[in-house]
Amino acid sequence: MAPPPAVGGSSERTPLLHGSSSGSSNSCSNNSPFGVTPQQLTHMLDPKDPNSLRELGGPDSICKALMVDPKVGLKQREQIGPNGQHYSEPFQVRREVFGRNTLPAAHEVTFWQLLVAAYNDRTLIMLTIASAVSLAVGVYDDMWGSHKDDEVKVGWVEGAAIFLAVLVVCFTNAINDYQKEKQFQKLNAKKEDRTVKVRRDGNEVEIGVQEINVGDILLIEPGDIIPVDGVYLGGHNMTCDESSATGESDAIKKGMLDEGRDPFILSGAKVLEGVGSMVVVAVGVQSFYGKIMMAMRQGESSETPLQRKLDVLAEQIAKYGMSAATLLLITLTIKYLVSCALAPEFPPASIMFSHFVSIIIEAITVVVVAVPEGLPMAVTIALAYATTKMLKDGNLVRQLAACETMGGATVVCTDKTGTLTQNRMTVVRGVVAERELRSRSDIQSFFTALPEHVQKLLLSAIAINSTAFEGPDEKGHIEFIGSKSECALLGFGKTCGLDYRSVRTDNKPVRVYPFSSEKKTMTTIVPADTSDSFRAHAKGASEIILRACTKYVDQDGQVQELTEKITSDCLKHISAFANHALRTFAVAYKDIGSSELDACSDDEAPLSELVWVGVFGIQDPLRPGVRQAVDDCHRAGVIVRMITGDNIETARAIARDAGILTKGGQAVTGPQWRAMSAEEQHAVLPRLQVMARSSPLDKQIMVQRLQERSEVVGMTGDGTNDSPALKLADVGFSMGIAGTEVAKEASDIILMDDDFKSIVKALRWGRAVNDSVRKFLQFQLTVNITAVLLTFVSSVFSADGQSALTAVQLLWVNMIMDTLAALALATEGPTDAVLARPPQQRNSALITFEMWRMIIGQALFQVTINLLLLNHGLDVFHLPHSDAGMAVLRTMVFNSFVFLQVFNQINCRRIQPDEFNVFANIHRDTGFILVQVFIIAAQWALVSFGGIAFSTVPLTASQWAGTLFIGMLSLPVGLFIRFLPDLSACFGLESAKSPAQQHLPEVSASRMRMESSFKDVQNSVRFFRAIRNAQMSRDAAHDAHVARLNSNFLNDVSALPSGETTAAPTTAVSASSSWTRVKKAVDRNGKNSE
């Protein structure tokens, strides 16, 4: 395409690098020490702008401006700048102008900033205010109030302990975020640890990708992933797959601009075939890939859905706590004022003020107890523990919300290659020249049985028509690199003695039509043995290649016409391979002349009148344990859908082997899916289990349609063009091995091993997190309601207004029972039971009827038992009615309250209505046991040595046994509560097994099986009915035919002359008799008449 005419009538624009700026946006800056600026170079790449390249004078002028000779490259130790200055560091001025090929560290946040971000929580701020007020009042009471004469000053303990709890939450959050960022940085560092070839000082050298500079001459080979942006300088047949950068699936041929080809090579592109060189024009944040990566960092993480629910709940609880505290404050104030008024003489102002301060402290204590400061800690501990364990299971959690969201996942859409399968393809079946390969072990005998010229033809086709090559992998092992299918074919050829390098050296391609997802074929044209002739080797999707064939190679190696019978046999083999979960690849060829070669277009390969050579079945075996993992998903009520680029037959077969495609399930192709309207897609979705020949757009549409049906969607992806679907999904899974960096940035969880089983592990941990938080929530609310009710009732109805538990004792209960209980209940790992129930609804209530039943039941029991103990304990335990006896009794009330919470924690280990064994797997729950041991030991120390600070006195062994027995009553009471009937409908609450809590598929697997079986019966009935009707039709036709014969016979007899009339036949001719029997009867009657 010719450049547009310049203003002023000139037919060509003067290249800007040669001095004229023309006022263009590409004009050079005088401040640049080089002849071109970074802005000019990047302007022509995004979007690709050939005119900008022309204005810069083309590749040669760019190289001249960048001070590089394409044949020599940069100097290995370039220390002299464009103006002759000498620099201490190599490439110093070049890197100052154009930058380094590195990206800024993502989210460079200090630990202090993470700590501040963790503190930015309304509940934590409210607790801080409460701790400050409590601390101020406590210090005042110690110094000038009712406790100024006490030996031990403990008024500060309440506020300090609350503040300590806030610090624990903040530090736990910050440490978890810090570790997560470090892990992700390590992962990216490993991915960037690779080398490339460049030309330096006229020699080819390998350098790390981070050492590439603008102006370097990068040498490109098949399989390379381009790390920088560049302009094509020269090469041979270079074709790039830029789908990972642009999302375009078609391969793009690279070449010079004057040839009409694309000269721009973008970072992130993969070289499919050919070799070449390019001059680097953009690195780091200036490159196409760098801009995408920086744009992906703009999103800010938000709090998790569970945390949002808990924030709302905490605010509601805090409001109730404030109401209770206000009511307590008013009630005790009025009660005290009335008692003062009724007293013989009014108390002095100092005593009244001290008493009012005590009432305020008690009210604040109620607020502190009521505010569930343990809730954010429980979520934090559960998520921190889960993400740490998930990393060991192969899941790197990038977004904390994904951990809990995965627990409610209802659908998982997964890739096939590498996720369900091992991505290690091998040829295991095949048919070449009408000879069949039945197993991998027979390859050599199969190959030697072929005619010699067919052997040569087959190996040439495999070696020439391929972009794969042999080289070292990341571990240094020599293996084939490139398309896995082509690697499988080259592996087959290597087993047969193929030296692909020598074949490629002897057969230089004339034309190459690379494989594209649209055409599903690849064609390479090379010179043939005879002069002025060429051979086009074609391979690709079997059904497409077969349709293009008119001839085939028979078992003797001769070319024959392709008959309908041979075509049918080929289709049977293709179908048989596909039904055995094999990917099928066909091989064909065609000999053409030079005139036909000249007539071939650059875009359309000569795919007509081909000669069919054969078809191969390539196996990509399932990963071990995939079938069990899919079954686990189905058992958990999660629907697994497979999305793959394979043909529909292979996709069905693999999905059946993996247990994804079940009886009654449906499979569609990507084109069929895109052709449907939104209504039709919604109608298909409940039974859709497999999508074949899919594109990244199909994934995006799939996620949208599923989310419109209130599904929680998990989606896997590995390419950059998968990032929209990964972002759109509720939980996006990227591949740690095969995934691009952009896909990882877009994802929520990275599968470090690319294995589907890791998704099931994430599902287990997600449900375990949700269960852990609910367990703690049930325990926390029980403690809070019990403490508030007990404090309120005992304070109001006691003669001196004293609560059953002192403020310090309540603080111990509040801190230890909240903080340590969060640690105990939030660190239990997932059990098999979490996969034995359907997922929760997206907007289900946080507290179910069963949880409320347990909370209220336990709270009423604990308040009742403590009040009974407080009022009748002196008589029950035979204690003296004195201050000393009352001190022992109050210590026993405190001890009993703590033991009630210890055993109620055991109750809260199981929250599902059908889980009655609260001791299940407790021997494996080491954290829970250690926490209980610590609480009991700390309680013994407080009771024995707490003294004035905790208002306790030592207890005897029998008194310890009595309080322990009272605490153990929580277990039988909890069991009794579990057996109470489900009255959720009466109270308008959600039961754990109600549709409001459980997400059930619109069409269950059992219903699909039943419908499929019903259709099978209908089809069988139709089949047998058709057979019966056909038989009846044949019998009726036969009878009609015989009737006509009989009628004709009688007519012939009646037409005879009277003298020749014979007697009428005496033998009856039935409608079912044959003409032979009729003839015999006529002859016999004729003889009798004679």
UniProtKB/TrEMBL annotation:
| Function (record text) | Catalyzes the hydrolysis of ATP coupled with the transport of calcium.
Among the GO biological process terms of this entry, one is: intracellular calcium ion homeostasis
Top-level taxon of origin: Eukaryota
State the EC number(s): 7.2.2.10
In Pfam terms, one family for this protein is Cation_ATPase_C
Q: Identify the GO cellular component terms for this protein.
A: plasma membrane; vacuolar membrane
Where is the stretch described as Disordered?
1-40, 1060-1090
Q: Give yes or no: UniProt keyword Lipid biosynthesis.
A: no
Biased composition of type Low complexity is found at 19-32, 1061-1074
The top EC class is translocase
Per UniProt, residues of the Cation-transporting P-type ATPase N-terminal domain are 57-134
Q: Where are the transmembrane segments?
A: 123-140, 160-178, 317-338, 350-371, 781-799, 811-830, 884-906, 927-948, 960-980
Start and end of every Cation-transporting P-type ATPase C-terminal domain?
803-979
Spell out the protein name for this chain: Calcium-transporting ATPase
Q: Which residues form the P-type ATPase A domain?
A: 192-296
